[in-house]
Amino acid sequence: MKRKLAxxxxxxxxxxxxxxxxxxxxxxxxxxxxxxxxxxxxxxxxSPSNEVNLRSxxxxxxxxxxxxxxxASVAPSVCEGASAPEAVHYTYSASRPEEALPSCTAIGDASxxxxxxLPVFTIADSVIDAxxxxxxxxxPDVPIVVNKNVESFIRYFQTSGRKxxxxxxxxxxxxxxxxxxILKENGLPEELSYIALIESGLNPTVRSHANAVGMWQFxxxxxxxxGLRVDWWIDERMDPExxxxxxxxxxxxxxxxxxxxxxxxxxxxxGEGRVSRAIKRHGTEDFWELAAVKKRSLHRETREYVPKYxxxxxxxxxxxxxxxxxxxxxxxxxxxKVRVSQATDLRVIADAAGTTVEEIRRxxxxxxxxxxxPNYPGYQIKIxxxxxxxxxxxxxxxxxxxxxxxxxxxxxxxxxxSRIAKRYxxxxxxxxxxxxxxxxxxxxxxxxxxxxxxxxxxxxKNGKVVAEIVTNMEINxxx
Length: 479
What we know:
Elements: H1 2-7, E1 21-23, E2 26-28, E3 35-39, E4 50-54, E5 70-74, E6 89-92, H2 107-110, H3 125-137, H4 148-158, H5 162-185, H6 193-200, H7 220-225, H8 240-258, H9 261-270, H10 272-282, H11 287-292, H12 300-317, E7 335-339, H13 346-353, H14 357-363, E8 380-384, H15 388-395, E9 407-410, H16 417-424, H17 428-434, E10 447-450, H18 457-462, H19 472-478
Antiparallel strand pairs: 1-2, 3-6, 4-5, 7-8, 9-10
Helix pairs in contact: 4-12, 5-8, 6-12, 8-9, 9-10, 9-12, 13-14, 13-15
């Protein structure tokens, strides 16, 4: 099976006329850009694509190119009916791989997106063997270098930064084991977990001045690109588990672009574009050379990011040798995950699981409101380990209509969405969503639901308390 998988990956054959793919930004030449997606000649793709880091012996990069490898997204099996592997479509991109492959089609069917048909690719046995080995072992470990820059940060963490590092190490006993397990599961080195240490101190709810949020400090655009939900109800950047899976995907793409963990880490801090431009400008792919050049293209924060990371990694892996208390990673934060079929008050969940609302919030820092997010099929909430059976039994006794209650408000003449939202300290979009309303007009006498818990003081003061309200977006689930 592995040989079939590897047979779907193609090495670039050098032809007299280079193949060119057209994009919005213009035409890209393979000698200057990384190959990032591919499909086969005949039949249908049997399952979603996998990303494989292919170091091509036959591929010659243009001088000054920042890319040291080819990224090929391939189907796990050769297309049905194909007598020999043939490339029919390649997409060139300067950033990240496409998430899905085009269907297996004839070359003529794909030519409308290209200036010229791409050549046939073949793959040698020696390359297949190399790919099989990499698939088994995952990506290489992060090389540990201790130079004067790293030593400087080690001294900082031992002295003026000691109180911060001790706090970080204290949190690591809850999260580090999980982070390393997820990275290993995705074929990544466990050492990458310590990037979260310097990004956030392993604080799942921290927010930076640039609105980067969570343990891995994702901005909203990057978070949503890698599958995290960020809205008024929930911010999965604060979910340590889901955010780590997203970070793993991001690291894979960064390493695929630069073939260097130091450059990948620098890109995680500064962005792929800035690091790529620095490489092109100074003609080197060595991070330490880029950090040392007089006419610097990288900001000071990025130049110091890698040595700071290596210093944190060095100490955290052996804290006693650097004057810190040892940390037992085997403890970890333990919990069960149970499916919540509709928006549910956290008090109801806590009662069913035999715990407190505070504990539910601690286990689920991504929840921004006092209830689980609506319109989230299959959402799973974390509850204390060992309580899932009790939770299921207790929740089965709670009618759907009693799992959540909102404030009820009767619209008065002249009232608008914005005025009502301001009155209750919520948002217009959230009120419209709960009531399945569109537009800006409100009819006097209409009773609408406000995303405020009825027992709150503001609810008692400003509106009628309603004990049982089923929201419009959940009604279909109850029928």
